[in-house]
């Protein structure tokens, strides 16, 4: 059944605990990556660059990702619906990620910062929008009516 609804299946063990932990580890990466893409898009725009140049510059390079090439245009166009992963869902997982980190003895400075950025995104009215809406927290966008 999972093969029918999943792009990829990674077996983490024979019970739910490791699989749940792996999901949180992956979502920590996604939160950091999405925030980084948003900041780079905002920085390009604030510097007077076409933010598409950022996506073109990383395209095909070791630092590129399909995720950047999908979320980047969403951020550039302030297109946050329909959500693939809503901001409020990210916030829920970031709380669980911090719990996992505390249990595992891993420091959380980066996750704390990412959580604060997503919290501001939700507070600004983007809780039900795609997590690409995190872009709105780096600089005001003239194309985002919910500044």
Main features:
61% helix; 147 residues; mainly alpha
What does this molecule look like?
The chain has 147 residues and is mainly α. Helix content is 61%, strand content 0%. It has helices at 2-5, 16-46, 51-58, 66-76, 87-104, 109-126. It is globular. 28% of the residues are buried. Residues 142-147 have low confidence and may be disordered.
In summary, what is this structure?
The protein is built from 6 helices and no strands.
Could you say which structural class the secondary elements and strand pairing correspond to? mainly alpha
Q: Helical region count?
A: 6
Spatial shape: globular
Radius of gyration: 16 Å
- Main sheet, how many strands, which sense, barrel? none
Number of strands: 0
What is the H-and-E element order? HHHHHH
Question: How much of the polypeptide forms β-strand, as a percent range?
Answer: under 5%
Q: Between the first and last Cα atoms, what is the distance in angstroms?
A: 42 Å
Question: Mind sketching the topology for me?
Answer:
Blueprint: H1 2-5, H2 16-46, H3 51-58, H4 66-76, H5 87-104, H6 109-126
């Amino acid at each position: 059944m999972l093969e029918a609804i999943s792009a990829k299946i990674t077996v983490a063990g024979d019970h739910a605990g490791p699989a749940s932990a792996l999901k949180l580890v992956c979502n920590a990466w996604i939160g950091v990556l999405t925030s980084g893409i948003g900041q780079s898009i905002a920085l390009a725009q604030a510097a007077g660059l076409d933010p598409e140049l950022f996506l073109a510059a990383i395209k095909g390079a070791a630092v590129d990702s399909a995720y950047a090439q999908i979320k980047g245009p969403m951020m550039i166009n302030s297109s946050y619906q329909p959500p693939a992963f809503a901001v409020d869902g990210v916030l829920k997982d970031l709380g669980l990620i911090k719990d996992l980190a505390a249990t595992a003895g891993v420091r959380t400075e980066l996750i704390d910062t990412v959580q604060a950025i997503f919290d501001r995104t939700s507070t600004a009215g983007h809780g039900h929008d795609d997590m690409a809406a995190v872009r709105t927290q780096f600089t005001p966008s003239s194309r985002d009516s919910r500044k």
